[in-house]
Amino acid sequence: MITAAIKENEIVNGYIGRLMTLNLSSNKADFLADLKTHLKDENLNSSVISLISHVSNKSVLEILRNNTIVPYRRAATQNKAFDAHEFLNPNVSDASCFRTIRPGMVLCEDCIHADLEEFDFPYWKTFHQLPGVDWCPIHNTPLRIVKKKYHDIAYETPPNAIINKSALICEYDEAPPAPNEATYRYIQLVSFFLKIRTPVKARDIVNKIGAKAREKHNINTNRVYHFQRKTLADVAKSSCKYSWLKRLVPRIDYPDQYGWIGAIDNSTRVIASAESFALALALLFDSTEEAIDFMIKDLNINAEL
Ligand SMILES: [Zn+2]
Question: 128 alpha carbon to ligand 1 midpoint, in Å?
């Protein structure tokens, strides 16, 4: 059995694939069984994540924090999950560790070239797999997604070997976001969410985001109050290019009877998802640094800087 160290920001799903490639294995179940034998793991019920922890010489917690998108998924946490401390708990399920959100696997051509130069092999990155990240947070290159029908095998194949099955996420003539655009800040912020080290209560976020939205843009955060209606979704529509916003929030053109777009506006009043939280921060602050400062000072977010 040939083993290898897991890279920083390498998504654990892709790491398994890389180990399979090194060992010329094309069947994941067989490979994991071989790995178990190799590690002399006699516990019948040991989780895949504990095997990976063992083979990579990292604790389960380190893997969760650095090699999954769990910290992103827990950046705005409902009370119940918050109390479970899901990503602080090393007994977190395999399903949760390996869950991804986008409808395919995302890669950056420039990252592939840079990896080949530096390491001789490319690997799948956590920070490309987050919703709305349609350009690389490092290179600002348009990202590519491996089509859904190759979903099962994509992470088991090196990104450079499956690039011919991928398609651009954005339109071919869509310009990358400029550093002063909200979309750019959003992409930087969701990458930052991967560095959050304790789950954040969604309830605490909405109160403070709502106050900031009223103060900064005079936004009406009351869903049923009709007068002087200006919502955060209105700010999003005037600040972000429509094509990107439509991909992130497919219901952008379908407000409810009060003119409210739940997927965006709820973050000022009701409940925030990680996406709406990042979008709200990108819209309410003029720079990523200011937004991160607010997260740390006002929302008491504990992050690895
Ligand atoms: Zn890149």
Answer: 8
pLDDT in tens, 73-88: 888 887 666 665 666 6
Domain that holds residue 38: 1-67
Cα(155)–Cα(151) distance, integer angstroms: 8
pTM over 0.90: yes
SS3 content of the chain, % helix, strand, coil (to 5): 50, 5, 45
CB 295 within 8 A of CB 283: no
- Tell me the two tokens of residue 189: 């912020």
Tell me how far the alpha carbon of residue 111 lies from the centroid of ligand 1, in angstroms.
Answer: 4
Nearest residue to 249 via CA among 282, 217, 221, 226: 282
- Please tell me whether residues 281 and 196 are part of one structural domain: yes
Rounded distance from Cα 82 to ligand 1 centre (Å): 32
